[in-house]
């Protein structure tokens, strides 16, 4: 008897659940997989056999607590690539296959103003740990993409503007990673790579001209035309965070006054907190605003109005088809996006209703990681 539609749907859902659990853990035994998915051991065993035959999963045998165990990983027939996102306050790293499917990933916090040597040493250590988790070795890594929160000069490999990443000036980031890991590496701005990822596989896929803004600890952006980022002569194209919206405004870390980042970056938002809220950090503002706190909600809404003003000025020059807002601040969704749209529509050039839509990114805070993986894959000769 052929399976009914509901049985088929359940089987596909169980397969997807199994693959996602394997991807999340990197390497996991069948017994652990049953616990992680809530499926019965017999169901997991059958799914693993089916997906192994299909080339989706791979199995090996290991000894756990003195007993033989079936170790399950994602199949990787053409080697692996690595995506790294060295953010302002965190490090994310992922292994992926050349189709950009993530095999395993890990993240950890970083101290403020972390220095290049220590952070890249830590990234190399995490990579070794991930390779161990999936039963791979460094010889299977074919390329690495690194996302950092600053524009990268394509000629030197250094950050294009000194001072944006203290402790990283004068460092050829891709070369430094290549020395540590021993395989080809490429580096790019995290906002640029996030925008490209959204254009290729996220909310903006198929849209010809896209303006992406990443609202995180810093503010960055990129214009993506036909899937290609427009980064300019020094790699600094799209730096909307350093467009002045008030020439008499606060001093920005870039040395100018009134930059968008000086109004809506993490330091600017936390500086608005009154004494009773002084224990909160940037992440707390976002979570408290999402939970309904009126003061934090107002801070986010005011940030949205400033972002909308800057986006309107940018679009008056660029006339794009879609505007995408990503980064941690966009995790507040309509608390941010509603005032962004209102301010944008008030200040944009053109007839009412003719402005491009302003939407949240689909890939969330991991968009730069996806972009870094894409950067590594694009450098491969498959």
TrEMBL record:
Superkingdom to which the source organism belongs: Bacteria
Keywords carried by this UniProt record: Kinase, Transferase
Any one GO MF annotation of this record: kinase activity
One Pfam family this sequence matches: HTH_24
Kinase among keywords: yes
InterPro entries associated with the record: ATPase_NBD (IPR043129), ROK (IPR000600), WH-like_DNA-bd_sf (IPR036388), WH_DNA-bd_sf (IPR036390)
Keyword Calcium belongs to the record: no
Family classification: Belongs to the ROK (NagC/XylR) family.
UniProt protein name: Sugar kinase of the NBD/HSP70 family, may contain an N-terminal HTH domain
Native source organism of the sequence: Okibacterium fritillariae
